[in-house]
Design a protein that fits this description.
Elements: E1 3-7, E2 17-18, E3 20-23, E4 30-31, E5 46-47, H1 52-57, E6 64-70, H2 72-76, H3 81-95, E7 99-104, H4 116-122, E8 126-127, E9 133-135, H5 158-166, E10 169-171, H6 173-177, E11 212-217, H7 224-231, E12 236-238, H8 240-243, H9 246-258, E13 263-265, H10 272-284, E14 288-294, H11 298-311, H12 320-329, E15 341-345
Parallel strand pairs: 2-8, 3-6, 3-9, 6-7, 9-10, 11-13, 11-14, 12-13, 14-15
Antiparallel strand pairs: 1-7, 4-5
Helix pairs in contact: 9-10
Amino acid sequence: MSLLYFESNINNNNQTKVKIAGFDFDNTLVKTLSGKIFPINEDDWEYLYPNILDKLNTLKDNYCLVIFSNQNGVGLGKTDKNLVTNRFTKFIDSTKLGWHLCAALNKDGYRKPNTMMWEFMENKFDIDKENSFYVGDAAGRIKGWSNNKKAKKDFSCSDRKFALNLGIKFFTPEEFFLNQEPTQDYSLESFDPRNYQIQSNIYQHKKSNYPEMVIMVGSQGSGKSSFVKKYFPDYEIISMDKIKNKSKCLKLTQKYIQENKSFVIDNTNPDSLSRKQYIDIAKKDKYYIRCFEMKTERKLAEHMNICRFKLKYRDNIIPKIAFNIYFKKYEKPEIEEGFDEIIYYNPEYNFNKSELKVFMEYN
């Protein structure tokens, strides 16, 4: 299982409707005693602030204390699981408080800002979300936040996004333990699904009465394949994702033309050169050539890429470098390339599905 879970023997919360006081672990509750970024052993920890234990004791009678921690190093084999587990245990034992621990060991739905660790707790308790809260240091704060020139940029925004995904109150360690004023000097640095509005499409699909070649243009995750399945269910599909070889794609293009079939080139096809090889083959046989370009902004495409990976459990996530390559090579399709028609399309992503409304990250 990719979730490490345990609870201490002490239980201080007997309420039927449970309020959760959630905390990240490293640099929220503890820091390394050695001063190094990563702990060198299970004893390499101390309370982040001197008042942490006192503050936690004020919560024990009214809240269920839960640690939600990302520990992907364990899943990658870079961090010893026993070291991580024993370090958690020693902290919990030292507090003499009742704790639940959820630690995500892989890059999957358990990993913050994804919400499966919280959902795991929901299967155990009837949670009062309105009065629950979460504290974490990965808050997306920019360098020099709150006019503190020495303040470093946060390494991530996953803790803030975790709370946003859950719809619960969020605090940084400084705000919760030191009573600092909340700062607005932060950046979510990703697509914000809360603000997504479905694009209105005026496109009316026209089915061809004669054989044609359709060339798709769009980045990874832009909705090309869903569009093809919806509008061209009877067409043959030529895809590098499946064939893995450009020369084989071109041979298959020639084959379908010889057989007088309609087909779709379902690749990213970012520039005129990548499109020209297919166009040249089709023009020789006077095929009708349509181009459909997906007008999907990059951040939305990256969001959908991560959704497919984390929520549909695909084997591999498309790396950011693939998006970099696409947008660096991109050239707007032009009729002069040999197209008979070019259609620009805004994919209608269904954000009514709850899993698509959440923030997601590569990290």
